[in-house]
Amino acid sequence: MKLETVFARIYRELIEMGCLGCGRQNGGRMGQEKQKAPAGGEKRMSRRTGMLLLLLLFAVLTALAVLASSGALGGLFTSRTTTVEQSEVTMDTVASLTATGPEAEAQAAVDESLERLRELDALAGTGPDSDVSRLAAAAGNGEWVSISPEVYHMLAVAREYSERTGGAFDVTTGPLVALWGIGTDAAHVPAEADLEAARALVDYRALELGEDGQSARLLRSGMSIDLGAVAKGYALDELRRIYEKHHIENGLINLGASSIYALGHNDKGTAWRVGIRNPRGTGEEDKLLGVTTLSGQALSTSGDYERFFEQDGVRYHHIFDPRTGAPAQNGSMSVTVVVDGGTEDAGLLSDLLTTAVFVLGPQEGQAFLDDMSDEVSGIITTQQRDIYSVRGLGERLSNVLNTYTLH
User: Fold this and answer.
1) Which of 100, 201, 351, 357 is a plausible cystine mate for 83, CB 3.0–4.6 Å?
2) How far is the C-alpha of 228 from the C-alpha of 232, rounded, in Å?
3) Do 202 and 342 belong together in one domain?
4) Distance CA 246, CA 110 (A)
5) pTM of the shown model
6) pLDDT tens profile 258-299
7) Does 117 map to a domain?
8) How far apart are CA 97 and CA 208, in angstroms?
């Protein structure tokens, strides 16, 4: 309800109660004769009392208007609830945003989120002025490169998990990505000598982060970082904070279906239903491996079906094993990880862990997820059509294809 409406209603009620104009006498003259008492023994307030009440209410409503405009009232006096949906190509994917709440807040949340995605793309992408490109240009010269707090945080978390996975995950795989060219017209199997040269440049231990929280350097010439396994997950966390700032309790942040954060419930009042892609689907009938439900959680999926080429019967995909310099070949087809929203860096972790677990392989990957906190669950899908479940995510799937076996 608008403040003007509230004010007008109270004003009318004051008049009906006799709080305003109750000092008027016959002929508009004041003080010549006592006003007759209302029927039924009711007492009328004086004109002065009525005006004081009106001024007090005006002051209260003015204060409420200020609070409402600042967002402090959580949308109490804002426009009707609506759902805003918008999509845009950014961060090398299609970002689809849904926000339900007061109309102005929902639109603001989506607009601000899209702008934030553009900012992150400029920082973490491969443009000439990005932090990624500037770090690569200065690699090996010993100089510290000033970077954004956003990229610094991505690198700090990535390096931590590089240690924890024994190098199965490594954020310095930039030379391998460039050499193989997977996802481009230049995709090819490189010569062994070229592969060895590129692999020698992949080493998370040669990435140093400044203690100031805003600088980094690569110690070897030719090194470069690749944020493809962390940037979208980081973006989920950023957009979630924007939604919360605008009091959006129900919404879906969908970055290319591979990185998703679900808030609250959908328009039917139930948890969001999210399909997990069948890594060997060929049509609509077998497009999805299964469907899970999300609420207050981040979900990410990585698979060998996203970007790949085939040569001599071998599928070469974009998920590299830093230890071999080649796409991971360990029986994994896809990995999905769900992280509860109460976990710090929930989106970033879900994104990073899918790559790390994929490279570790079904057995080591499952063991690694088992050692994580209870807020982390997942499934690993193998080339043998087995689905290995961690903390019940597999059991929570519905409509699972009968060509797969759940373990």
Assistant:
1) 100
2) 7
3) no
4) 10
5) 0.81
6) 999 999 999 999 999 999 999 999 888 899 999 999 999 999
7) no
8) 35
CB 307 within 8 A of CB 282: no
pLDDT the model gives residue 285: 86
pLDDT at residue 35 greater than cutoff 60:
no
* Same domain for 249 and 332: yes
Beta pairing class for 386-390 and 405-406: parallel
* Same domain flag for 252 and 387: yes
Cβ-based burial of 151 (10 A; exposed 0-12, middle 13-18, buried ≥19) = buried
- Show Cβ contacts of residue 47 under 8 Å, excluding neighbours closer than 6 positions: 20, 21, 22, 23, 24
Contacts of range 1-5, beta carbons closer than 8 Å, 24 or more positions apart: 1/77, 2/77, 3/61, 3/64, 3/65, 3/68, 3/77
**pLDDT value for 50:** 60
Co-location of 261 and 387 in the same domain: yes
Q: How many CA atoms lie within 13 A of 138 on its CB side?
A: 18
When the pLDDT of each residue in the chain is averaged and rounded to a whole number, the result is 88
Same domain for 253 and 318: yes
In eight-state DSSP terms, residue 398 is: B
Is residue 201 scored above 60 in pLDDT? yes
**Any long-range contacts for 355-359 (C-beta under 8 Å, 24+ apart)?**
355/169, 355/229, 355/302, 355/319, 356/161, 356/165, 356/168, 356/169, 357/332, 358/302, 358/303, 358/319, 358/328, 358/332, 358/334, 359/165, 359/168, 359/169, 359/319, 359/320, 359/321, 359/322, 359/328, 359/330
Is pLDDT at 63 greater than 70 in this prediction? no
Residue 393's SS3 state is coil
Q: What confidence tens digit (pLDDT) does each residue in 51-60 have?
A: 666 666 666 6
Considering just the CA atoms, what is the radius of gyration of the chain in Å? 30
49, burial (CB in 10 Å: exposed 0-12, middle 13-18, buried 19+):
middle
- What pLDDT is recorded for position 115? 98
Residues 8, 95 share a domain: no
How many domains does one find in the chain?
3
The backbone torsions φ and ψ at residue 131, rounded to the nearest 5 degrees and listed phi first, read -60, -35
Site of tokens 């004003």:
11
Assess if residue 295 is contained within a domain: yes
Mean predicted confidence (pLDDT) in 341-352: 98
- Residue 206: closest CA among 218, 193, 189: 218
- Is residue 218 within 8 A of residue 139, CB to CB? The reply is yes
